[in-house]
Amino acid sequence: MTIERAVAADAGEILTLQRAAYVAEAQLYGDPYIPPLVESLEQVRKIIEGAVVLKWADRGRIVGSVRGQVAGSTCLVGRLVVAPDRQGQGLGTALMDALHEQVPEATAFDLFTGHLSEANLRLYRRLGYRETHRERMDDHLTMVHLRRQPDRSPPQR
């Protein structure tokens, strides 16, 4: 199993994985039209070409992916996805750690998730993300915005 940069040719498989991974989120919020489920192949291809998109491949099958878009000194993290049959095995943590390493110039990593997505919130908090604010989108959805600021202090001796 390896984590590496995705290429444009991976867009279709990443989109399929993304849709499989986000079905549970759509059901949780009662909304089949959440952005990850309606994103087009061309949109995914453009993201891969213009951002840091990592994939985790296992014997030729993409089982996880994450995106990082650098804006100034901040990396905007999005679409962390793990195949439903591989969730709970540490792939999400490994992908996030790899993204943090791939964007060493970032002074902050920002992301958001829905308020009912407890597993996501636990993962992000475990990785050092702290809630910055909440944004009510409608009656059934509040976005929780989180930020991680890497420790840049010199090691203690």
UniProtKB/TrEMBL annotation:
Record keyword Cell wall biogenesis/degradation present: no
Signal peptide limits: none
Keyword Coiled coil: no
Family annotation (InterPro entries): Acyl_CoA_acyltransferase, GNAT_dom
Residue ranges annotated for the N-acetyltransferase domain, each copy included: 1-148
Keywords tagged on the record: Acyltransferase, Transferase
SUPFAM superfamilies for the chain: Acyl-CoA N-acyltransferases (Nat) (SSF55729)
Pfam family, one: Acetyltransf_7
Protein name stated in the entry: GNAT family N-acetyltransferase
Species: Nonomuraea rosea
